[in-house]
């Protein structure tokens, strides 16, 4: 008997009919001889609605109470799903993140998993139950407070449980048929990928692909847990994410030269103007940002002007952290010694990802030629061995993604990709 962890997103359990449809799929997995653990997200846009409600009540709610509020959404889903499974004649038990043994640090709203002690889950499985776990949440190791893992945290919950339970696979069910070469909401001819390596998936996730959270893939790679991304709305095979390629029929699925094109419009750009070009200045800027607990993405320093000895440093960060970063830098302005700050939240990032680009000349040229032909101006450039990222105007992003996707022959010859549900909110 194998052990399978399944995760269902909010669009899959958006209403009563969706919950009943998911329950049938879970029962089918149980009938196939598997022990089944299910991680579930809040129904539809419940989390967004709870956030809106909190903002109406208090402009700055405490982290502890905010987490207590947000975790209610997953508790509703898990209980309803357990009821639906029992209605199909199978036994199920629901567990909150803390009951499931998801232990986190004490950072509210974006906690990280420290350990998973799934004793109660194992007991439930041994007794023949299907275990339903509320995703996105855990309990802090020190204060025993309820915590949440941040956006997409249910994916991380699922992979962490799969690792702790030594599962054969972690199945991530969503509203598309797998991982595509681009967001099918933007590129209608995006092609489904049959298999992708952890490394390429990590780059796509960190570059804006919303199918899997970066932390989820990172966790899966660390513990070598294969992920199968598929749709709960169809019976089609999805995308396998693993360290080794998969067998399909008599042939092995090989890694493509280019895996896909990702985009992200959730970032902003800050330019620190007039920084003295001497050792320690950049360190002071980024130490200020680090002390404010802000993660940066792309960083570019301009060539110093010979006449003034001053330079500009630009970097990107989440829009939600923009005000905090500006305030932190302004407070430390006398110590750093820059002239001014420029803030721009009307930007977008386009990233080309593929392990094959490091051994195939011409990839960079094709990428920039495609953008040039489309009249897309580039503001920042960042590269790694398997990724090229550029920052452009936010309005240019959809067209830039489409022309790059076409330039690398990624367009599908078959029907358009299907997005089954979800509001994209």
TrEMBL record:
| Single GO term (MF) | aspartate kinase activity
Q: Name one Pfam family in it.
A: ACT_9
The pathway is: Amino-acid biosynthesis; L-lysine biosynthesis via DAP pathway; (S)-tetrahydrodipicolinate from L-aspartate: step 1/4; Amino-acid biosynthesis; L-methionine biosynthesis via de novo pathway; L-homoserine from L-aspartate: step 1/3; Amino-acid biosynthesis; L-threonine biosynthesis; L-threonine from L-aspartate: step 1/5
Q: Where is the ACT domain?
A: 270-346, 352-425
* E.C. designation(s): 2.7.2.4
Residues that, per the record, bind ATP = 7-10, 174-175, 185, 210-211
List, alphabetically, the InterPro entries matched: AceGlu_kinase-like_sf, ACT-like_dom_sf, ACT_Aspartokinase, ACT_dom, AKii-LysC-BS, Asp/Glu/Uridylate_kinase, Asp_kin_monofn, Asp_kinase
Q: Which UniProt keywords apply?
A: Amino-acid biosynthesis, ATP-binding, Diaminopimelate biosynthesis, Kinase, Lysine biosynthesis, Nucleotide-binding, Transferase
Catalysed reaction(s) here are: L-aspartate + ATP = 4-phospho-L-aspartate + ADP
One GO biological process this protein is involved in is: lysine biosynthetic process
Per its UniProt entry, what is the enzyme's top EC class, as one word? transferase
Query: Where does the chain bind substrate?
Result: 47, 74
Protein family per UniProt: Belongs to the aspartokinase family.
> What task does this protein carry out?
Catalyzes the phosphorylation of the beta-carboxyl group of aspartic acid with ATP to yield 4-phospho-L-aspartate, which is involved in the branched biosynthetic pathway leading to the biosynthesis of amino acids lysine, threonine, isoleucine and methionine.
User: Any idea what this protein is called?
Assistant: Aspartokinase
Source organism per UniProt: Streptomyces doudnae
Taxonomic classification, please?
A: Bacteria, Bacillati, Actinomycetota, Actinomycetes, Kitasatosporales
């Amino acid at each position: 008997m194998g052990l399978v962890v399944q995760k269902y997103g909010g669009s899959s359990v958006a209403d009563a009919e969706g919950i009943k449809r998911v329950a049938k799929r879970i029962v089918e997995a149980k009938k196939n001889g598997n022990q089944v653990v299910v991680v579930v997200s809040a129904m539809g846009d419940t989390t967004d609605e709870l956030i809106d409600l909190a903002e109406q009540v208090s402009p700055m709610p405490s982290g502890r109470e905010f987490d207590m509020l947000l975790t209610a959404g997953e508790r509703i889903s898990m209980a309803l799903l357990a009821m639906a499974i029992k209605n199909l004649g199978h036994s199920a038990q629901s567990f909150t993140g803390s009951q499931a043994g998801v232990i986190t640090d004490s950072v509210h709203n974006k906690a990280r998993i420290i350990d998973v002690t799934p004793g109660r889950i194992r007991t439930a499985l041994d007794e023949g139950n299907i275990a339903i776990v509320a995703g996105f949440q855990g309990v802090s190791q020190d204060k025993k407070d309820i915590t949440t893992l941040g956006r997409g945290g249910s994916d991380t919950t699922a992979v962490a449980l799969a690792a702790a339970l030594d599962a054969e696979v972690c199945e991530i069910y969503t509203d598309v048929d797998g991982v595509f070469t681009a967001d099918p909401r933007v590129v209608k001819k995006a092609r489904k990928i049959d298999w992708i390596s952890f490394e390429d998936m990590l780059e796509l996730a960190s570059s804006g692909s919303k199918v899997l959270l970066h932390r989820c893939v990172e966790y899966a790679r660390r513990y070598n847990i294969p992920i199968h991304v598929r749709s709960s709305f169809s019976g089609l095979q999805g995308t396998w994410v693993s360290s080794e390629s998969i067998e399909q029929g008599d042939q092995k699925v090989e890694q493509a030269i280019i895996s896909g094109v990702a985009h992200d419009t959730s970032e902003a750009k800050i330019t620190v103007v007039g920084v003295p070009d001497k050792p320690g200045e950049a360190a002071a800027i980024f130490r200020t940002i680090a002390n404010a607990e802000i993660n940066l993405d792309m960083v570019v320093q301009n060539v110093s002007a010979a006449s003034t000895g001053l330079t500009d440093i630009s970097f990107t960060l989440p829009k939600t952290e923009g005000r905090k970063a500006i305030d932190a830098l302004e407070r430390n302005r006398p110590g750093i010694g820059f002239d001014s700050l420029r803030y721009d939240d009307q930007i977008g990032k386009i990233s080309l990802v593929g392990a094959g680009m490091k051994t195939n000349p011409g990839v960079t040229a094709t990428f920039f030629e495609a953008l040039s032909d489309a009249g897309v101006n580039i503001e920042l450039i960042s590269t790694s061995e398997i990724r090229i990222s550029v920052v452009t105007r936010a309005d240019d992003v959809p067209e830039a993604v489409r022309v790059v996707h076409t330039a690398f022959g990624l367009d599908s010859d078959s029907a358009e990709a299907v997005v089954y549900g979800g509001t994209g909110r």
